[in-house]
């Protein structure tokens, strides 16, 4: 049985790959490996999420959390574009976190990036102005919904949660859950079967 990308300590032999990727005016270089999510390139949903967050938050100066960051393409891209932000990236997969550190340095954002080894919010403290996540759908609905619940608790007043999810993988139930947690949920963008949901924390 193949290891899942949300495995804490992958046991498959480590093979390092490198690819380059254009987002807007920027070219990025990412190291990846087996037993991490989307090892051959940034997946379409993550790309759409990054583009949406950057478009809606030009000049943002606060803290960002990339929850379940994998090898870091979303958080690192956001750090590159939102030049005044501080980005924390968390994951349970230790191999992914090693790659995250390599990729932050490779793309010259290591001075504004914090890497956190955490199962969901176990080791995350403080409040964030923006939380982004491409949740681990294969881990099951309970885990995914725990991501959303933890995000609500760890957002600052007026902060925003951005979630990318495919229509066929539970977009409707995600929207319902976010509406129940936040009292609001808008479709910030949608394309090719992917939805970017945005919820704003309006109460403490």
Characteristics of this structure?
single chain; 204 residues; alpha/beta; 9 strands; globular; disordered N terminus
Describe this structure in words.
The protein is globular. The longest helix has 14 residues, at 141-154. It has 204 residues and is α/β, with parallel strands linked by helices. The chain has a seven-stranded mixed beta sheet, sandwiched between helices. Helix 1 (44-56) packs parallel to helix 2. Strand 1 (16-23) and strand 2 form a beta hairpin. The protein has helices at residues 44-56, 73-81, 94-106, 141-154, 171-182; strands spanning 16-23, 26-33, 63-67, 86-91, 113-117, 128-133, 155-166, 186-191, 194-200.
Short précis:
30% of the residues lie in helices and 31% in strands. The chain is an alpha/beta fold and 204 residues long.
Q: Structural class of the helices, strands and pairings?
A: alpha/beta
Number of strands: 9
Mean pLDDT score, rounded? 89
Which value, in Å, is the CA radius of gyration? Answer: 16 Å
User: What amount of the residues lies in strands?
Assistant: 25-35%
């Amino acid at each position: 049985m193949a290891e899942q990308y949300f495995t804490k300590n992958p046991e498959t032999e480590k093979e390092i790959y490198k690819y380059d990727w254009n987002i807007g005016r920027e070219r990025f270089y990412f190291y990846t490996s087996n037993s991490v999510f989307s090892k051959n390139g940034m997946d379409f949903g993550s790309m759409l999420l990054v583009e949406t967050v950057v478009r809606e938050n030009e000049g943002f100066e606060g803290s960002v959390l990339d929850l379940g960051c994998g090898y870091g393409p979303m958080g690192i891209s956001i750090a590159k574009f939102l030049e005044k932000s501080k980005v924390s990236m968390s994951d349970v997969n230790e191999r992914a976190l090693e790659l995250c550190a390599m990729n932050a340095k490779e793309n010259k954002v290591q001075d504004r990036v914090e890497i956190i080894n955490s199962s969901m919010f176990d080791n995350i403290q403080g409040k964030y102005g923006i939380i982004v996540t491409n949740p681990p759908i294969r881990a099951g609905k309970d885990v995914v919904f725990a991501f959303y619940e933890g995000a609500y608790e760890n957002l600052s007043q007026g902060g925003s949660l951005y979630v990318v999810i495919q229509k066929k993988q539970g977009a409707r139930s995600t929207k319902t859950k976010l509406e129940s947690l936040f009292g609001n949920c808008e479709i910030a963008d949608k394309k090719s079967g992917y939805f970017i949901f945005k919820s704003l924390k309006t109460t403490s």
